[in-house]
Amino acid sequence: MAGSEAPDKITPLRPKRPCPECGKPSARAFYPFCSRRCKDIDLNRWLSGAYAIPGPPIEEDEDGRSSE
């Protein structure tokens, strides 16, 4: 009986984590979010520039102009 293992012994591929927006349990369809609403809120923040990844500092000349 190789296929009769109990379902509680199956290890999930991803650990359960709370939604990064509201803290509710995440849903499989919207992982790592709990709903389409929270997923869309996060997407809007990326598209509007609220989230930003800093780049290298811009070097300036002595007169204050950038070297680019």
TrEMBL record:
Cofactors, names only: Zn(2+)
Keyword Metal-binding assigned: yes
Cofactor note: Binds 1 zinc ion.
Highest taxon of the lineage: Bacteria
Binding-site residues for Zn(2+), renumbered to this chain: 19, 22, 34, 38
Pfam families: YacG (PF03884)
InterPro entries named in the record: DNA_gyrase_inhibitor_YacG, Znf_NHR/GATA
Keywords: Metal-binding, Zinc
Quaternary structure annotation from Swiss-Prot or TrEMBL: Interacts with GyrB.
Protein's job: Inhibits all the catalytic activities of DNA gyrase by preventing its interaction with DNA. Acts by binding directly to the C-terminal domain of GyrB, which probably disrupts DNA binding by the gyrase.
UniProt cross-references to HAMAP family, sorted A to Z: DNA_gyrase_inhibitor_YacG
Family: Belongs to the DNA gyrase inhibitor YacG family.
Protein name (record): DNA gyrase inhibitor YacG
Record gene name: yacG
